[in-house]
Structures are given as C-alpha cells and as structure tokens.
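Board notes, transcribed. Complex of a protein with zinc ion.
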Amino acid sequence: MERRQKPIPVTSTERELLQKQKKRYEEGTGDTGDWGKFLGTITLLGLAAAGIYGLAKASARSQQSVDVQCSECSEKFIMAISSHSDRAVHTVCPYCGAELVVYLE
Ligand SMILES: [Zn+2]
C-alpha cells in the first residue's frame, strides 16, 4: 500500500498544529523532545482514526506484553512489547489478519 509510505506534507499551519499537539502529548505523557516518536505515534493514531487501521486497546499491560482485543474479530491475543515501545504500536491480528494500531496507555 503506497499511501502508507508517503511522507506527510507539512504546511506552516499544520506545523503550528503539530507543535501544539506535541506540547499536549508531552504534557500528557512526560515524553519530551523526541519528534520521531511523537510523529510515529500520531501518524499511527491518525491512520487508525481514518479507518486505515483498526484501533485496538491494550489491557493487562506488563513489562513484556499486553493483552490486545482485535477490533475486527474480537479475538484476544498477547502482543510482546518492550519498555521502549512507542505509545502506539502497529500489529497484525493473528486470527483475522487485520492491521491494528494498539494504543498503550
Ligand atoms: Zn482479528
């Protein structure tokens, strides 16, 4: 899918909006300074919001894994994460193959 690879065009208005979003993100997460991480997270969440990916919520988070319920088929599976995982992680449901964004809260 080529549209997923496209760089995000940023106008000055959008940059201002991004700055605001980044500030909110940093205040909300205490995760500061890393633009790459921030953009990765909001891009994934944006794609989920646009319906390109399903947004799945994680529960029962431990250091190494989270329980994920697929938003497409409702099956539950365990996804491995690391302490360096971003706030939003792209994964594929092992049951139905749906592409999911898991939001780690
Ligand atoms: Zn599924």
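The radius of gyration is 15 Å. The chain has one domain: 10-103.
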